[in-house]
Amino acid sequence: MAAAAAGGENSGAGAGAGEGEFYLRYYVGHKGKFGHEFLEFEFRPDGKLRYANNSNYKNDTMIRKEVFVSPSVLREARRIIQESDIMKEDDSNWPEPDRIGRQELEIVMGNEHISFTTSKIGSLVDVQSSKDPEGLRIFYYLVQVRPHPQIPTLFVHRQITSTYDALITSTRAIG
Fold first, then answer.
1. CA atoms of 159 and 3, how far apart (whole Å)
2. Between 10 and which of 20, 28, 36, 165 could a Cys-Cys bridge form, CB atoms 3.0 to 4.6 Å apart?
3. What is the arithmetic mean of pLDDT over 1-21?
4. CA atoms lying within 13 Å on the CB side of residue 45
5. 3-state SS of the chain?
6. pLDDT digits (tens, 9 = 90+) for 60-111
7. CB 103 within 8 A of CB 119
8. What pLDDT score was predicted for residue 36?
9. What is the pLDDT of residue 9?
10. In what order do the strands lie in the sheet with 172-173?
């Protein structure tokens, strides 16, 4: 469930001067025919971007990558989160995780901490039929990989995409 917590250190490590701590983690996955399949990424306050993708389809192995991103990438991710207004939402009326799967989004920005959990969302029809279509729509567009006029996404934004492309060559496998 969504939770807002005050307090904590404003370390600002990697987040940019005067902006406080920034942490973001997103997970989407399910347990099915091919076992536990998921995609997860996190931006840590020290600038480390961690990525994991587990698919057992055709006996694929888990992919884990780590890169350090620049403070400007963290600032841009933070700006996207701020402009989305996701920190004002509450997941108490969102669909509970089910056999189809689950999504989790955790964000720490300064003294604010939120954590959302919901089911996998297949389309805008699922969003519209929920008990909180406005709040769930913000979540849906934020985690999608396609652009939306009001809510830009992490991986289609020009600055992050070009930085990601430049950094992908310097990734190293972990594990």
1. 30
2. 20
3. 45
4. 14
5. CCCCCCCCCCCCCCCCCCCCCEEEEEEEEEEECCEEEEEEEEECCCCEEEEEEECCHHHCCCEEEEEECCHHHHHHHHHHHHHHCHHHCCHHHCCCCECCEEEEEEEEECCEEEEEEEECCCCHHHHHCCCCHHHHHHHHHHHCCCCCCCCCCCCCCHHHHHHHHHHHCCCEECC
6. 788 999 999 999 989 989 999 999 999 999 999 999 999 889 999 999 999 9
7. yes
8. 85
9. 35
10. 112-119, 102-109, 22-32, 35-43, 48-54, 63-68, 172-173
The structure tokens listed for 16 are 């940019």
Residue bearing tokens 């950094």: 167
* Tokens found for residue 4: 């807002």
In order of their start, the domains of the chain are 22-169 (3.30.1560.10)
